[in-house]
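ok so i was messing around last nite and threw this chain in just to see what happens. nothing serious, just curious
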Amino acid sequence: MALLGCGGQVYLKREAPQATVVQPDSIHVGSNSIYVRNPAYWSGDQVTLTCDSGLPIDTSSNGPDAPDGYGTYAGSVWTIGTNRDHIANNADDFYTSTDADQFYMRQQEAGLTTSIDYFIYRDKLDRLSFYTSRAAALNGATNQRITLYKVDFNGLIISPSGSAEYQNAIALCAGDVGEYSFSDTQDEITLDSICDYAPTYTLPAATNTEYDNAEITPRSAINTEGDGTLWTIQADLSEWTLNLSAPEVDTTAVGERFGNSVKSIITGGGTMDFLVERRDTGDNERDSTQLMRLLLLTEKGCKADAQFWMAKDRTAVDTILPGDLYYETQLLVTSIAINTRAGDVIAGSLNFVTVDEVALRMGTN
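result:
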């Protein structure tokens, strides 16, 4: 009995996106979202928010959990806490008449949350909002979003949720993001300080001192491995083809009667045909938009571990051997074509190339 093509499946495991640093100005209070340039974060992803000085969220209904980020004056762009709620306009007294009243917002009043996990929704304007469940994040309902507050948190790290070791490493980075955002800026993608880049201008003289002259623009890199990803079935595929080749290299010496060759590098590529649809497929599947997004990534996150399954969990029958049969490699999506026909389903086709090792896996364990 030969294998039937309907048993062929593709499993993908995305490359984890790079941790990203965002500044307080990136918060859009009206939509409870944060503008993020990094395109590797997709709706439904689980992320960890980390900030050493506290997060712009309220977990205990007593104000945002960033006590050092509150405003002090009436009309401040930052949230006014209970310590300054006696100031409603410029005509109010700056100090209260009671010496026991707190002048600064403290952890005892506001709380302090430095790390928390959420699921994200990415809107059409590249703004991320946060949800407590993946299903809610995929739907993107505005009334279910976690409320964000305008507080001065210096730098907030958004990273993929991963192993405990990876989260600990991110927590260590949170303390190095920088305390004075007006004099030093971190790259959104790499967490590097602006002071780590050589300036492109000559006057005024710029140095690598943290509080000295440092030009933010046009420094193109500014604001532009734990692994929380899972193996998922690539849903909505109608057909896939994997082509592998190992071209020969002629090593025949001059004067020999018969030729001789050796294999050069093993390369591969192929195609996938799929139906275009956006839907909630559950935790073990992803819809075809995952393939469409992979083409648009050019840096970290553009690769995907891939398994091309031909048989899965077969039972032994007569001469048929039990177990699995599949190829495992990494791939890069290089081109995509979308086909629309009136009265027919919208379908797509893509080409990919394999990178790194290609392995043939088989057996029961």
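not much to say yet. The first helix runs from residue 107 to 110.
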